[in-house]
């Protein structure tokens, strides 16, 4: 039976919430290896907190431009990608991909991707790669468990959403992306996903059983955007 292909946009906040989360990485590695019999994976790593801290410092100390802030995020993403590639050893393709506009050659069951160029997030990279390679689903794994109808940190009556269409989702998150944006999914990536009819599953990485359920096509706790 032919293998299925899956793209995971892995939030940097899971890799390095404060320090490197070794416990999470061990569990994530174990789960991915378990599914390699039926899946090939592309895993895009975000810059997360590392990126935001460098961007904040650059802005406050040096007054750097938006393009320079983007590059800090890209290099933080590449650093995280290097770590993920190394922990999977021989299962992973030797090079980190940073250009999501090319056709994939599955020489290894795991491909690790990182930031591309200023103006684009790793969420966008994941969706772009899915579009080019005709993969209809992207899994967004981060510290966000659900999409809410409004910011749950500001509004106590915010309600979680288990399934939502792209137009409604985009109305909630807005239509512009900026470096260090902390949102369930990049608004520009959302626009491309809608146009390309790509589904995105938003899943919290705190409990990886939900990722396991999603990969098994079982019901999972999270938000499905269609």
Overview of this protein structure:
It contains 8 helices and 9 strands. The chain is an alpha/beta fold and 226 residues long. It is globular, with a radius of gyration of 17 Å. The protein starts with a strand and ends with a strand.
How do the strands line up in the largest sheet? 3-2-1-4-8-9-7
Fraction in helix: 40-55%
Shape: globular
Number of helices: 8
Biggest beta sheet attributes: 7 strands, mixed
> What is the radius of gyration computed over CA atoms, rounded to a whole number of angstroms?
17 Å
How far is the first residue's CA from the last residue's CA? Answer: 27 Å
Average pLDDT, rounded to a whole number, is: 93
The low-confidence parts are none
In N-to-C order, the SSE pattern is EHHEHHEHEEEEHHEHE
Structural class: alpha/beta
DSSP summary, beta strand count: 9
What's this entry about, in short?
The chain has helices spanning 12-15, 22-34, 48-62, 66-88, 122-132, 166-173, 187-196, 209-215; strands spanning 4-10, 39-45, 110-113, 137-142, 147-148, 160-161, 163-164, 199-204, 223-225.
Describe the SSE topology.
Blueprint: E1 4-10, H1 12-15, H2 22-34, E2 39-45, H3 48-62, H4 66-88, E3 110-113, H5 122-132, E4 137-142, E5 147-148, E6 160-161, E7 163-164, H6 166-173, H7 187-196, E8 199-204, H8 209-215, E9 223-225
Offer a few descriptive terms:
globular; 226 residues; seven-stranded mixed beta sheet; 17% strand; 9 strands; two-stranded antiparallel sheet
């Amino acid at each position: 039976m032919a293998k299925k292909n899956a793209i995971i946009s892995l939030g940097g906040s899971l890799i390095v919430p404060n320090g490197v989360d070794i416990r999470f990485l061990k569990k994530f590695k174990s789960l991915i290896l378990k599914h390699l019999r039926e899946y090939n994976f592309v895993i895009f790593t975000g810059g997360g907190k590392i990126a935001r801290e460098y961007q904040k410092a650059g802005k406050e100390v040096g007054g750097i431009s938006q393009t320079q802030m983007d590059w800090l995020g890209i290099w933080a993403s590449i650093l995280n990608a290097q770590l993920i590639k190394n922990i999977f050893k021989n299962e992973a393709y030797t090079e980190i991909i940073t250009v999501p506009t090319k056709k994939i050659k599955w020489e290894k069951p795991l491909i690790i991707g990182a930031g591309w160029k200023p103006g684009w997030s790793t969420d966008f990279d994941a969706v772009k790669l899915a579009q080019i390679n005709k993969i209809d689903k992207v899994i967004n794994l981060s510290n966000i468990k659900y999409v809410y109808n409004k910011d749950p940190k500001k509004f106590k009556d915010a309600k979680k959403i288990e399934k939502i269409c792209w137009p409604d989702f985009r109305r909630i998150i807005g239509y512009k992306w900026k470096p260090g944006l902390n949102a369930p999914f990049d608004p520009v990536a959302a626009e491309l996903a809608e146009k390309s009819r790509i589904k995105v599953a938003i899943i919290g990485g705190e409990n990886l059983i939900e990722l396991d359920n999603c990969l098994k096509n079982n019901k999972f706790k999270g938000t499905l955007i269609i």
